[in-house]
Amino acid sequence: MNIDFNDGKWLNEPASWRADETGLTLTTDEKTDFWRETHYGFTRDNGHFLCFPTTESFTAQIRIQGEFRTLYDQAGLMVRLDEKRWVKTGVEFTDGEPFLSTVVTDGRSDWSVSQPFKELDDFHIRVTVAGGAMRIQASRDGRHWPLLRLAPFPTADRYEVGPAACTPERSGLTVRFSEFSIGAAVTTGLHDLS
């Protein structure tokens, strides 16, 4: 089911954003991020997240377009239970180039990056939550979905999911989100890339 971005609820609404029937465009505020403790010793919960409620199992996917050029520029999907239990996954700019990035947080954050493809100015991300696990896949074209990460995630009766964007080192990143859908959890085999 395609989602109307105007039906979402903001956590840390950006000063500049607009939504219509085809997508959401936002520009990040200064020094925004989601992170808890690990390595850096700080907690930040001021990134931009447009939340939509889900049931206990679901698949959500979205298309992301932007020019990620500054350290830690990031955009993608977030799944959240509360300020201590959440996942953000999508693109993040680090070490001079964009990577696919996932931060899984259960009290403290971890961070993993990979680069199954380098063209990250326009890509898709898909998250499936079911049975205490989260399956994260990325795609260049919205048809072929290689696995990015499989991680444990707490079971719950409902979650919040939606687009998220942050710029820990600056402001002014403009991101376009489109083709956002939430539906029944994908049940294909782990190595089925469709």
TrEMBL record:
SUPFAM superfamilies, per the entry: Concanavalin A-like lectins/glucanases (SSF49899)
Superkingdom of this protein's organism: Bacteria
PANTHER family, A to Z: REGULATION OF ENOLASE PROTEIN 1
Protein name per the record: DUF1349 domain-containing protein
Organism: Rhizobium hidalgonense
